[in-house]
Design a protein that fits this description.
Length: 286
């Protein structure tokens, strides 16, 4: 079950038949008479997995995290075959190092931190189009994911838009061999900040923990670009109709532009809801 170097001696962790793991013992290699056990332990298993399958799993995990969002930061771990976790994670990192915004300038730098027991590899994407390119959140999907937004029905029948915005951090942690001991286990995850835009006005809704308010403008512009391109497909949403007509300088709609019918209804409802002034009432003493 394991291997280590102890006081100059190679030892193997042995699990005994009909006993649980609490009875495992470290045994000198020469004590293992059946050498087929050692060959089986050291055998390299080649597992071939399509990287696009893993990217699909990554996209599915991110979408599910957004749909059940309860905080501005979303982090998900991506399940992959254990034997292929390291190679697949490295393949994704190599893929992500060349986003569209950097192809003319060269790949992004990876940050590698080798600790006492774990080696950490991280890559940060900052541009909305790079995030959408990696996660393919700009594609029309049947499960309410549209553009780089996930539509979620809110109050007053408005569909607020939840967008995975910058920065998005890809992280991969794998164990390192220390003093001959190799600890199994690894983790590949994606962490991103989720920005919520009001489904009627397009205004950025306040949420604690968002790292940088200056990302409002590029995210809004990217979302508008997506909606402009998809409005011709017949996508029915207030922002798809209105943002397609707005110039780039406009980040949100006015209340009159977003909810014209509601304004008319309030005006017709009477004085208590913003209509005409109430008639003058005489004093009671008179």
């Amino acid at each position: 079950m394991g291997e280590r170097e102890h006081r100059g001696q190679i030892q193997n962790l042995v699990n005994w038949e009909k006993y649980d793991q609490s009875f495992d013992t470290w045994e000198p290699r020469e004590n293992i008479l059946d050498k087929r056990l050692l060959k089986s332990f050291h055998k390299t298993v080649d597992v071939t997995v399509d990287v696009h399958d893993l990217l699909h799993a990554l996209r599915e995990a991110v979408v599910q995290a957004l749909m059940g969002l309860k905080r501005p930061e979303a982090s998900v771990e991506v399940p992959v075959p254990l034997a292929a976790l390291g190679p697949l994670a490295r393949a994704i990192f190599e893929h992500a190092r060349r986003p569209p915004s950097r192809r003319a300038r060269g790949p992004l730098q990876l940050e590698i931190d080798v600790g006492a027991q774990w080696k950490s590899t991280q890559l940060q994407l900052d541009m909305p189009e790079d995030i959408a390119w990696l996660l393919q959140l700009h594609q029309l999907r049947p499960d309410n994911a549209y553009g780089c937004a996930v539509l979620k029905k809110g109050k007053a029948s408005n569909n607020n838009m939840l967008i995975l915005g910058a920065p998005v951090l890809l992280s991969f942690y794998e164990p390192v061999r220390k003093q001959g001991v190799f600890k199994a286990g690894a983790s590949f995850s994606v962490t991103g900040n989720v920005w919520v835009f009001n489904g009627a006005t397009g205004a950025l809704m306040p949420a604690a923990g968002l790292p940088n308010a200056t990302m409002h403008a590029p995210l809004a512009e990217y979302l508008k670009g997506v909606l402009r391109g998809r409005a011709a497909w017949g996508f029915k949403h207030k922002l798809a109709e209105k943002w397609a007509e707005l110039p780039k300088a406009r980040l949100e709609l006015t209340a009159e532009e977003a909810l014209p019918k509601a304004r008319v209804k309030r005006a017709r409802a009477g004085p208590s809801t913003g209509g005409e002034q109430p008639p003058h009432m005489a004093d009671l003493d008179a």
